[in-house]
């Protein structure tokens, strides 16, 4: 989880960059944290699947990762075209920060609280 926060900080630093040095520092921060995140997320995907389905979990992980790159590039390009690169990188930092919350709620709360969270979320989505 700390790598996601470091990645978010690097993205925010990039959004506020005014010099080549700041761009390089943010690139180093984001590159190191992404290098830690990618295998961790892949391991998490494999851990969450049955052992006989680890190949399918790996394939699904990379499929969705590539889909995220493709769609993310399109939407971030659109964001930059209607605003600015600064706003685009700030938006990307916010999306990254939201992923911290989703990751924490999905993997770091006790099982009894997960069921409570799912019930509350279900009642918000479909208030029947």
Question: How does this model look, in words?
Answer:
By secondary structure, this protein is an all-alpha fold. The protein has helices at residues 2-15, 20-47, 54-82, 85-107, 111-125. It contains five helices and no strands. The longest helix has 29 residues, at 54-82. The model has no long low-confidence stretch (mean pLDDT 85).
Topology, pairings included?
Blueprint: H1 2-15, H2 20-47, H3 54-82, H4 85-107, H5 111-125
Helix pairs in contact: 1-2, 1-4, 2-3, 3-4
Compact description:
This protein is mainly α and 128 residues long.
Q: Tell me the strand percentage band.
A: under 5%
Radius of gyration: 17 Å
Q: H/E series, N to C?
A: HHHHH
Span between termini:
35 Å
Q: What is the averaged pLDDT score? A: 85
Count the beta strands: 0
């Amino acid at each position: 989880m700390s790598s996601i926060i470091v990645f978010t900080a690097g993205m925010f630093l990039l959004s506020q960059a005014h010099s080549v040095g700041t761009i390089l520092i943010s690139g180093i921060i984001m590159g190191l944290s992404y290098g830690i995140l990618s295998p961790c997320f892949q391991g998490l995907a494999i851990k969450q699947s049955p052992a006989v389905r680890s190949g399918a979990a790996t394939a699904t992980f990379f499929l969705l990762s590539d889909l995220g790159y493709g769609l993310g590039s399109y939407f971030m390009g659109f964001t930059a075209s209607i605003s600015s690169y600064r706003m685009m990188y700030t938006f990307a930092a916010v999306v990254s920060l939201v992923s911290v919350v989703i990751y924490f709620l999905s993997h770091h709360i006790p099982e009894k609280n997960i069921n409570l969270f799912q019930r509350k979320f279900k009642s918000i989505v479909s208030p029947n």
